[in-house]
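Might you be able to consider the sequence and fold that I enclose below?
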Amino acid sequence: MEGKFNGKMIIFSGPSGSGKSTIASHFLEKYDGFSFSVSACTREQRKGEIDGAHYYFLNVSEFKERIKNKEFVEYEEVYPGKYYGTMRSEVERIWKNQKHILFDIDVYGAMSIKRMFPVQSLSILVAPPSMAVLRERLVKRSTESEETLLTRLAKAEKELDFKEKFDYVLLNDDLNKAIDQAEKKIKEFILS
């Protein structure tokens, strides 16, 4: 995806279990001109996660202070007391390195970035073929309790209601096909 650098943003969004992270990771591995946007969050750091590589881990008061100082291009309280957001400094860092930015964020964050950067951003909603398939994918992960599974499924239904607000809806019923479709759309956008 050669061409003059023009600072684009590719936003992958969709429910947990839709495949957005898998598709985004594939894209990053295959193409050199992109950099993943590392989000800030207030959740606990998990074993093996590195601050500044996987997330910027902040406590709630630090996060709120940065909100007050307008240091985020987008942020959301995704679950009660669990904030996620993209710091302005992260966008500046990536563009300074002459890379296009790849986001893997929730639909509310995607809409915020799209509003702030309407021309530079392509928003892609990764959608499962059905809620039943999504449930099956989440169960296979073996990371959810029944309570968190129900919470994620309820959130997924709300997120999928946003599909008309996205530039492109990518149905992920076959991962390889979805990756090919994403690559085609992104190439068109970057070269436009």
